[in-house]
Amino acid sequence: MISASQTGPASYIYAATRMRVRKSKLLAREDYIRLLNMGLPEITRFIEETEYKAEIDELAVSFSGIDLIEIGLSWNLANEYQRVLKILPGVMKTFARSYLSHWDIFNVLTILRGKSQGVKTGKIKEILIPAGTINVVTLDRLLAEDSPERIVENLSSWILHPVLEREFAAAQESGSYAGMENELYKAFYRYVLKQTVSGIKGGKPFREYLQLEIDLTNIKTVIRLYQGGVREDVRDLMIEGGNFSVDELVRLAGSESIEEIMEGVKKYYPSGPVANLMEVGGDGEFALHEMENALTQVMLDKMDRISKRYPFSICSTMVYLKRKRYEVANLRAIARGKESGLSGEQIQGYLVM
Predict the structure, then answer these.
(1) Is the separation of the CB atoms in 337 and 346 below 8 Å?
(2) Which of 217, 236, 305, 335 ranks highest by number of CB atoms within 10 Å?
(3) What global pTM score does this model have?
């Protein structure tokens, strides 16, 4: 067997092949349709018979029902990401580790929000996904702090700490971490994009993937702002580095109709789920989750094509990591929907399949 720690073409081929095998084990559309017709106990048993078995079995002594499913899924996601990192060689590992650091932002903000709202430490910990560069020991230390100020101080070695420190006072004053969150993600993408500069092996396909993700994030923001009635200049909310320029995004945000926004999206993504959504919803009435799911599917489909174009690059890993994340999101949506008494048809509209 080839060691993933080796350098040279063989280790990259090995790692890419392992990622494709992992992707083949993800749930298929037919599995989700079956789950939509099950009750919560049946869903739990189904999940326990899949790749989530180890986490579900370990947690079953302490949790049950929806809590068991949600925490088991979170644990599995974090564990799987760490297993993937161990497989990857060289620059593939560097790219993946940098990309997965977006979970650091999620974890830090979850802790800050939880502490600010008086949520119990145990409940906050259940939500965390320790898949980034901030390890479990550090997260536990942050959870033990009594104030948001002390949490920020204890993150002085974090690469995004300067942004966190700069935005913290305004977040505390406004009572909202939304502005800080936006600035952290903008800084994150700047940091990761810098690693794709010309000459770095695998940099071009990785950059193409990142541009897709930036586009998806920006367009979702534009759509949410439109639906929220926000029409002023939204330049500061846009992430630079995608296919759409910030000026284009600002123009889209000022659109008079949702159809105008979707037509603008079709400039770069002329076919597939977005175009299909436009045809089906001819009256211009689209639910937010329908538009977001269509955009997400566009991104996933295009990621697959990039991965086929660069079969032994980081792209096979990125495709798997992203699809794994959406599998967990789908399973959560199904479990929560069933817990809330929603019909299978209602839940299906929120799934990315």
Answers:
(1) yes
(2) 335
(3) 0.88
